[in-house]
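User: Hey, quick favor. My workstation is busy. Could you predict this chain's structure for me?
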Amino acid sequence: MKDTSAVECGYTWLAEWERHEATWIAWPYRESTWPGRLQSILPITEKIIRTLAEVETVHVLGGPSETFQLAAETLAGVENVHVHPIPTNDVWIRDYGPTFLVNPKSKKLGAVRWIFNAWGNKYHPHDDDANASKRICDGLDSKGKWHFDPQSNTEPIASFGSDLVCEGGALETDGEGTLLSTSSAVVTGTRNPYRSHEQIEREFKRMLGIEKVLWIDGGELAGDDTDSHIDQLVRFVRPTVVLAAVSSTSDDSNAPHLAKQYQVLRESTDAKNRELEIIPLRTPPPRMVQGRRVPESYCNYYLGNGIVIVPQFGYRSTDSAALGILQEQYPDRVIIPIDASDFIIGLGAFHCATQQQPAV
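Assistant: No problem, here it is.
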C-alpha cells in the first residue's frame, strides 16, 4: 500500500492513552549500549514486561538466536507474553517499530512503516532494526492478533510504507489532530534532505490523520543522541494539556533550552485553535556517567492499560515530585515507578523502549 495514504483508507493515529491490544518491546543484549551494565538491564526489562503482561499482551522481539533463547526461557510461562524470533540491533523499538493506526469504521488495525536510519546514520549496523517494522506487520492480522501459522488465511494488517525517515520518539499526538515534533529530529540533512517543513507535514497528514503540526523547537537535553525527540521533552496528558520538561536547577546547561521550549508551547495552539495548559515536570540534577551527561527526563514514561510506568533516576526530590505530578494527571491509573538509573546510560528510557498497539 505504498502509494495509497493511510488516511485515504480510513485509518488514523490514536493517542497513547487509548486502550491497547498490546505493547511491543525488544530484548536487550547489546553490551555497547550499556557498557558494563547490561546484566542490570535484563531484570529491569523483565520487570517491565511482567508488569505490562498483567494488563495487556506483550510481544517481545527476541533478537539474535542466542538472545531469543534467553528471552524465551526467562519469560517462559508468563501469561500474555509472546517472544518472537525477530532479529534486532538494539532495544529502541519506539523509533524503529511501526506506528500503529486504527480504522474506526471497519474496526481494523493498520500501521505506518517509516524509514529508519539510526538517527541520521549515527550507528551501524542497523539493518535488523530497519527491517523489524515489516517483520512485525507481516505477522499481524487486521484485528491485531499475531497469527502463529504462516499459512493462516486471516486478513493481514493494512501496512503503509512511507518514504519519510522518521522515528516514533519524534512524534506525539493528542488524538484530536495535533502532532508535536521537533525540527532537529525530522527536518535534517541526515534524515530528510531536500524536504521542507511543509512537505513533511503533508506526509504526517497523509499517514497519521494529523491536522496541525506544532514544531516545538528549542528544547534540548545534553547527552541526547536523538537530536531532541519530543518524547523526552513534551507529552500530551490529554487534549490541550501537556507535561513539559524543565530544569530543576538554574545552572543546568539544559535550563535555557528548556525555557525556550516552554515559551514556544505558551505561544502554540492545537488543531482546534485551543491554547495549551503546560505542567512543568522538573528533570533531575545533571549526572555524568563515564564522562558523559545522561539525558534524564520523567517525560519518558509509558502508558499501559490502567497504568503509568515512570522512570526513576535515584534523586529523591525530583523522583517523588514526578510521581506526584503523574498521579495527579492520571488519577485513574496506577503509577508504577521503576529504576531507570542504569537504563538511561543507553541514552533512552521506558517510552523509547516500548511501542503501543491500540485495540480495535
